[in-house]
Amino acid sequence: MSGASKVSEDFSSLGVSKWLVEALRSMKIAQPTAIQKACIPRILEGRDCIGGAKTGSGKTIAFAAPMLTKWSEDPSGMFGVVLTPTRELAMQIAEQFTALGSSMNIRVALVVGGESIVEQALELQRRPHFIVATPGRLAHHITNSGDDTVGSLKRVKYLVLDEADILLTETFTEALATCVSILPPKERRQNLLFTATVTDQVKSLQNAPTIQGKPKLFSYEVESMDKVAIPATLKTTYLLVPEQVKEAYLYQILTSAMYSESSAIIFVNRTITAEILRRTLKQLDVRVASLHSQMPQQERTNSLHRFRANAARVLIATDVASRGLDIPTVQLVVNYDISANPDTFIHRAGRTARAGRSGESICFVTQRDVSRIEAIEVRINKKMDEFINVHDTAVIRKALNKVTAAKRESLMAMEKENFGERRKVNNKKNGKEKTYRRN
Fold it and tell me: Most Cβ neighbours (<10 Å): which of 98, 189, 201, 315?
């Protein structure tokens, strides 16, 4: 039996429309993954769904395929809303919907911060079939635009929360409530929650009514997802680093013979750190891009494109990039700053060692971080090894002078440009809206 016909049988047997099976085949999507096999038939039955599976397991198609199948039976008006915490993830999901539905003239609206509100309002007035949005920007349209712009949201059939564990945190409470308030009541729409971490907030949604004698809510977690928090192909290491020379150690690692050709994501906790590192490494002739919330949206998009195309070898990022983004070739993840939440480590590390490939995660550990590393080791059920590939003190000293000079120039340039002042002004001007603008 040929591989193509096997794909056809497999996806068809889940209830996916023939045209969509063909679209999947043309995108070289072969066997359905575990979460797709489990969730697609249940969603097609009309049941609500909580789907838990780690990053890279095919969650987007697990909700997109049944929604597109049902939409194609009656392709009219606004059909579904997908909410997700970051602009980049929203863009990626919108691209996937557009690609899958291209043969059916699908209309997908991307509604995220950093883009023209007026153009988005006009696009919403044209009644797109699917809206992919960050909660803050969609809430802004619901609050400020008229019924001719958002009125059709009252008739949507599906609401998807992607990365639901993040969306159900306090950060998004207000915006999410505004988004849900205009939709049909939950009994009259299907609610699909997908997440890489099934938190207590997600679990609390499991009490639900029945449909045709079955619980309306179907909950599926990829087996032993929690026990295998990180893949076996991921090497986890730590490096004890004095706080004041972290940049020198990072530069030394990135330019060493072992890693000089590796693609790497450097995770930091604050946007100002991301900007300092980007500028410093650029001064030192490292091909670098950055991704954080204070960048204009076009710059964020360009950075991702440059990194995916290997025009930039190193991406400095806040946790905007830790979730769901499809960046397939990352060989090294450096936790330059350690997050207080051990699950954040898992999402960051999930950027490498995907689909059976090997990868490496290095944690920079300062004196303040020891308890955080211990909490991560408990969470992943694994002791980290000490990173031993940077040990030549003379080389570190040589790097230190260059890096210190480059950092000094970067800080002077940032001061001259008033980096960060624009956000303070905007926050004062917009009051409560600042929570929305995190998206």
Answer: 315
End-to-end CA distance of the chain: 47
Residue at token pair 């209830």:
15
Alpha helices (runs of H) in 219-359, residue ranges in sequence order: 246-255, 271-283, 297-308, 342-349
Distance, CA of 90 to CA of 112 (rounded, Å): 8
Dump pLDDT digits (tens) for 103-131. Answer: 899 999 999 998 899 999 999 999 999 99
What's the CA gap between 405 and 403, in Å, rounded? 5
pTM listed for this prediction:
0.71
What number of residues does the chain have?
Answer: 439
pLDDT at 347 over 90: no
Coil, strand or helix at 266: strand
C-alpha torsion sign, points 129, 132, 135, 139: negative
Give CA–CA dist 255/51, Å, rounded. Answer: 41
Burial of 412 by CB count in 10 Å (0-12 exposed, 13-18 middle, 19+ buried)?
Answer: exposed
Tokens of 340: 């207080």
Intervals of CATH 3.40.50.300 along the chain:
3-221, 234-422
CATH of domain 3-221: 3.40.50.300
